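Quick one: examine this chain and its backbone structure tokens and tell me how the chain folds. Here goes:
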Amino acid sequence: MTAMWDKLVLLLNQTLQIYQALLQLSKKKREILIATDPQALEKLIKQEEMLIIEAGKLEKLRQPLIKELAAALGMASGQTALSAFINHADSQISAKLTVIREQFTGITDELAQLNKLNERLIQQSLDYISYNINVLSQTMAESTYVPKGQNGEDRNRRSILDTKA
């Protein structure tokens, strides 16, 4: 039983490290969005994707362990929250799991705030780009006077860009 608890703590600590790395990348993402550096943003997104894949792998390892541990403790299959395991663990493991839970809570709260901020920065950038495209693609104002024999409506309209985003 101790081996299962140790493995759970190990998996949770590894997952916590990934979340901490994601938090650092989110902070960098904010700086990159402010600096409007698309190449750096692309690299950072690839790093995030790799971390998310790694977190998914750890989750696939954690799920069967949680089920096995819950069965060994006689817990219902729906009681797989970390707090339920904290209540069933001995004091040393319980203390470790409590610390991990608090760290997860802090990181996820901070990640949620950073993601909202980054979302607003991305939306502002998209609005700015859309505005510039609209300005550039607007047709030139027609003149009031046209050469003799031409109708002002028949003239070809010109624009700087021929397409819209």
